[in-house]
Amino acid sequence: MAAGEFELIARFFAGATGRRTDVAAGIGDDAALVVPPPGAEIVSVCTALHEGVDFPPGTPAGRLGRRAIEDGLRALAEEARGGPPPRPAWALLGLTLPAPDEGWTREFARGLGQACRPTGIELVGGDTTRGPLTIVCTLHALRSPEG
Question: CA quadruple 33, 103, 94, 47: dihedral positive or negative?
Fold first, then answer.
């Protein structure tokens, strides 16, 4: 969605999630700059959802927004492996849409925000393209030796 990508980000995703003080440059383009605290490890997980494979066509957009984050949170919880649990911090979103759809995008962003805000996750970047409906979410979490 080259022509409308930045407008889509500004209208639906900027401010949809929590705000963190460790984000030096966040949402607005494909990359972000985050500043983890000294001594913290960054734990990253990536999940992908494909229409017709991971969810049926017609699945409500808000549900998909929540699921994009919730699947990553489950993967982070599994990553703890008996150590201190990682604390979710940042998300990157890859969103491929078959065609622009403001209503769908609004509901997706709302669901994404509903899953991010309680956990302190800030959406800091990603990419938006055109093609078969696909959602790729990378979550980054912080883990320090003391927990």
Answer: positive
Output Rg (C-alpha) for the chain, integer angstroms.
15
For 83, phi then psi, to 5°, come to -90, -175
pLDDT one-digit tens code per residue, 79-126: 777 777 889 998 999 999 999 888 999 999 999 999 999 999 988 888
- 3-17 per-residue burial string, b: 16 or more CB within 10 A, e: under 16: eebeebbeebbeebb
Over the stretch 22-50, which tens digit does the pLDDT of each residue have? 665 556 666 676 777 788 888 889 999 99
CATH number for the domain running over 5-143: 3.30.1330.10
Q: Where are the domains of the chain?
A: 5-143
Q: Which tokens sit at 132?
A: 């078969």
For residue 136, the one-letter residue type is V
